[in-house]
Amino acid sequence: MASYSVLHGSVALITLQNPPVNALSAAVRAGITDAVQRTLKDPQVTSVVICGQNGRFCGGADIREFGGSMSGPPLVPMINAIEAMDKPVVAAIEGVALGGGLELALGCHYRIAHRQALVGLPEVTLGLLPAAGGSQRLPRLIGLPAALDLITTGKHILASEALKLGIVDQVTDGNALNMAVEFARRIVGKPLDPRRISTLPCPSPPDVDFLLDRVLAQVRKRARGALAPVACVGALRAAVFLPFAQGMEKERELMGALFDSGQARALQYAFFSQRLVSQLENHCCYWARYGLVPRHIAPEEILERCLYALTNEGFNILQDGMAAGPEDIDAIYVFGYGWPRHRGGPMFHAGQVGLARVLEKLEHYQHKHPDVPYLKPSPLLRRLVAAGSPAVQKWREFLNKDRVHSQL
Ligand SMILES: CCCCCC/C=C/CC(=O)SCCNC(=O)CCNC(=O)[C@H](O)C(C)(C)COP(=O)(O)OP(=O)(O)OC[C@H]1O[C@@H](n2cnc3c(N)ncnc32)[C@H](O)[C@@H]1OP(=O)(O)O
Questions:
Q1: Residue ID of nearest Cα to ligand 1 atom 24
Q2: Which member of 39, 46, 324, 325 has the greatest number of CB atoms within 10 A?
C-alpha cells in the first residue's frame, strides 16, 4: 500500500509501504494511484513528494507477481499520470531506486537522492527490459550512450554518479526526504513542461546507427543467446527514432516477447535461489531452536554429485556415439550453457580433477544411493581409468569403433 499525508499544509507526501524494499505490488500501485487522485483534488496541496518507507525508495516491480496473473493498476498509466500532474512532484530517493522504482522516479518532475542511494534499471538481469517507460525516458534524460550502458548491463550506480549523468537533480549526505520536502515547497509555480521527460528529444550522437550496431554486437557477444539485452537495444533504438508514444508501443511489444520467455523465468528463479541460499544459515538456527537435527550434507557432496553425474553422462554419450569427442560436449557447455570458459567444459574439468578420482567418487555415491542410475560409472570412464587416465585429447582413441555415428 501507500500512505498519504500533508506536510506544512501544502506538500502531499506519498509513502510506498511494502517492506522490505517497497516493491510495486498491486496494493502499492493502487495506493499510489489513489494518493495521486487525492492530491489532484486537494486545493491546499501545491506540490507532492514520493518516498519509500524505512529509508528505501523502491526496489522495482514486485518480481513475485510475475509468475501469476497480474492485477491492480498497471504501472505505465500510473507513471504517465504522475508526469502529467500540474503540481510539481519530487522523488525522495533513499536506499534504492531500481527498475520500476527508478521508472517511477523518472515520471516525477525532480529527483533528490541520498548520496549513497543506488539507482539503476536491472531488468535485463531478470530477462526483461525497463518496460514502464524506462527505456524511453532514460535516454531522453541522459542521452543514448549512457542509457545504453546502464540498460544493457543492468548495473546499479551510486546517486553521486547518477548526479553526474543527470539522472538525479541533487544529492545530500543528510536526510533526502527532508531535503525533498523543502525543495518541493520552493519550486511551486516553476514551469513543469521542461521537467516532463517524455516531451524531451533523445540526445544521440551523429553516428547513432553505428553506435547501436556496435552495442548490439557487443551484447550478442557478451551474453550469447540471451534475448533481453538484444531487446533492450531495440527499445533504445525506438527511443532515438520514434516519438515517445510510439516508442512506448515498441517497448511494450518487446517486453511482451520477453515476459513469458523461459529465459526470464530462469533468471527470476536464479534471483530468488541466490537469496534462499544466503538464508541457509538462518534455517539452521530455526532447526536448532525446535530441537530438529538437520542431516549434514557437505557442500562438496552436492557439487560432486551434480558435476560427476554430468560428466558421467558425457562419457555415456561418447560411448553411445551421440557426440564425436569430448570437445563437442565441452563446446556446448561453454558456449551454450555458460560453463566458465576458464574451466574448459565438464569433460576437460573431469580430466583436471583426475579420472580416477571421478570414478572413485561415483562408485562411492552409487554405493550410498544404489537407486540413482546416473551415478553408475560409465564403462568408458572405467576403460579410460584402466588405461592410465589419458589426456582429454586422446579419449577419441578409446571410443568403440562400432558405436553409432555421431550426430554432431
Ligand atoms: C507486461 C508487464 C509490464 C511490467 C512493467 C514493469 C516492469 C518492471 C520491471 C522491474 O521493475 S523488475 C524488478 C527490478 N528490480 C530489481 O531487479 C531489484 C531486485 N532486488 C535487488 O537487487 C535487491 O533485492 C536490492 C533491492 C538491491 C536489496 O538488496 P538486499 O541485499 O538489501 O536485500 P535482498 O536480500 O536482495 O532482498 C530482500 C528481500 O526483498 C525481496 N525483493 C527484492 N527485490 C524485490 C522485488 N523487486 N520484488 C519482489 N521481492 C523483492 C528479496 O527477494 C528478499 O526477500 P526474500 O524473501 O528474502 O527472498
A1: 59
A2: 39
